[in-house]
Amino acid sequence: MGSARWLATFFDDPVAWYTRLRDRYGDIVGLRVGPIGMVVCFDLDTLERIMVREPRDYVKGDGLRATRFVLGNGLITSDGELHRRHRKLAAPVFTPRNIEPFADATVAIANDMLDAWPERGTVHVARHAYDVSLRVAGVGLFGSDFDEHEREALHEAMRQLNEGYRTAAGPGGTQALRHGLTPAARRMRRGRDHVDEVIRGIISQRREAGDAARLGDLLSRLLAARDEDDGSSFTDEEVRDEAVTMLLAGHDTTAATLGWCLALMGLHPKEQARARAEVDEVLGGRAAGAGDLRALRTVRAVVDETLRLHPAVYSTVRDPIEPVTLPGGHVLRPGTDIVVPIGGIHRDPRWWDEPLDFRPGRFLDEATVRARPRMAYLPFGTGPRICIGSSFALQELVLVLATILQRYELAAPAGFELRPHVGFIRRPEGSLPLEVTRR
Ligand code: HEM
């Protein structure tokens, strides 16, 4: 199959594509796409070596060509000393203690959304999931809710970025992007410029207000942060890159996951009833808060299982700094992408019984959890480059889902189809019309 057709089938559904690849060719598969060589690795021990045991021997490198164009040199795309310095400065923002204060705002935003739902009828939940997550990101990352105008601008920008990415991510994509050569590249540039405009506006407002350290949100902390060793702080350009990185990495992924969660709840009434029974028992009618996260185990298992079947970040890559030899004798030169097929690993029958079934219970039974290899579940990656916002995302997903289940029943109407739509991330396709009934 030619590389163009190969890429086209990949973007239909990379998770299904990885599964087929492993079934056919095994654990370590060498591929060539146009001029680019890569290896897709399903072998958990090798992945552990790359991501956990010897992470300093690898970089994100060229593998993230197309995203660097948008994200600049933020945490996701940077490597080496720059990455270590920024990670150290940003890490305190995301500790469980520091994200707890955002729990009440998250629940208030979810309730605000639900106040506008009908007593009974069809709600297109994808846009709501997107809006809630954007508003929570606004509060947690920038210290204020985005207004209607900013939300609209960001929605449109994300759409342009995602649509452009499918075309622009291919071989030669970086050049096309940089020079705005193709319609897709032009669309992405427009999307990036819109995001930049909103973020730069917020940064300059905040610098002028001079209230940097007061709010405890990400932007305040970035503006106020000083390196312990040399006292240096972030430049405006660095703050921009980190803020855009966090917004795109944090909001889009969480919105997509919430969309998958709600659709799966609509399709699986028994699992929904089980989670709701827990919500009623734990909350007894009051609003959820950070203190309930530990007790909402079944709701958390719904989120975990959703992230297994439909990880928004369906793969990542590493490039070796020096030549490395992988099992099977594959010698990789620097600049060769090693693909970590997260979505494929999550459906590997060696680690997961009936991998295509939606079964939150597999995260509740302690013996089953303990028996599973740690590397078989990587929705947030692992090692020193593990997702910095995972606690923030999980807090938001559990609290929003619990609040929705507390107030509404969800049902997928006849003929409802759940399919992926793939851009930067893998989200559920379409508007997700669910039948909702107020309790
Ligand atoms: C359900 C939601 C999310 C998912 C599925 C997700 C997934 C991931 C994954 C798989 C990685 C590791 C990539 C790699 O190893 O190459 C990652 C890294 C990252 N994520 Fe998330 N993420 C989510 C939410 C968030 C949130 C809420 C934020 C910030 C507010 C965030 C910010 C980041 C950053 C900055 C990195 C790069 C960390 C580093 O390399 O040091 N993510 N994410």
Can you put this structure into words, describing what you see?
With 439 residues, the chain is an alpha+beta fold. It has one domain: Cytochrome P450 (Cytochrome p450, Orthogonal Bundle). It contains 18 helices and twelve strands. The protein has helices at 3-12, 14-25, 44-53, 65-71, 80-90, 96-99, 103-115, 125-142, 148-168, 173-179, 183-209, 218-224, 236-267, 269-283, 297-309, 342-345, 366-371, 390-407; strands at residues 28-33, 36-41, 58-59, 120-124, 316-320, 324-326, 330-332, 337-340, 408-411, 420-422, 426-428, 433-438. A five-stranded mixed beta sheet has the order 1-2-8-5-3. A hairpin with a 2-residue loop joins β1 (28-33) and β2. α1 (3-12) packs across α2 (14-25), α7 (103-115) runs antiparallel to α8 (125-142) and α11 (183-209) crosses α13 (236-267). The chain starts with a helix and ends with a strand. The structure holds protoporphyrin IX containing FE. Protoporphyrin IX containing FE binds at residues 75-76, 87, 245-246, 249-250, 253-254, 257, 311-313, 316, 379-381, 385, 387-389, 392-393.
